[in-house]
Amino acid sequence: MGNAVKEARRITIVGDLVCLERTVIERTAMAADFMAEIARTQPMETGLLPEGCVMLSRVCDEGKRTRMIYVIERPAGMQRIQYNTLRGGHEFKELVLSWPRTVWFCRTSQAPISEFASIQDLWVTATRSSIHEEGHATPLFCLPMPNIYESGNGSVCMGNLTLEDNKVPNSVRITGLLRQVLESAWNSD
User: Is it the case that residue 4 has pLDDT exceeding 70?
Assistant: First the structure.
């Protein structure tokens, strides 16, 4: 978009009335760029969002795949988990942990010819305050739990979790995925 300010003046006579008009062109843009910007800023139909979803981002890449990131916030509280204490074995211990406020990021991808998105990965972080309070400036911290790659800085290991069929809405699939992760057996693999 160009930022050159242009001014035009014209005189219009209608009956006994003479009008001196001044038109200011603040910006110019190519029609294709203007249409792309309108399409980018138009409201998007999301359907129902996953439980606790506080933000959603959607981008279309060069391959016309739609990528979405759902940001889900869970309040602090007590969390019951199963922990496999025997590496490579099956010795489970139930723990009740004081769980911090967490922010989960679920990334999906949808091909242009498909009507359903696939879940790519899931990330979890801890935070002291709600995203509503600080927005994009909310500090995020590692959640000191096993089953998170790169020493807590990577995605959550989904191991052998099973997701709902792709024909189920993302809201149901993502809410179910978070529930499964929390109910799954955490381990030190």
Answer: no
Give 42-103 as a DSSP string. S-----SPPTTEEEEEEEE-TT--EEEEEEEEE--EEEEEEEE-STTS--EEEEEEEEPEEE
Residue 77 has pLDDT above 90, yes or no: yes
CB-count exposure of residue 102 (10 Å: 0-12, 13-18, 19+): buried
Q: Output the pTM of the full model.
A: 0.73
Q: How crowded is residue 105: how many other Cβ atoms within 10 Å of its Cβ?
A: 18
10 Å CB burial of residue 69 (0-12, 13-18, 19+) is middle
Phi/psi at 108 (5° precision):
-120, 160
Angstrom distance (rounded) from CA 35 to CA 54: 28
Tokens of 33: 């760029």
Backbone angles phi, psi at 124, to 5 degrees: -135, 140
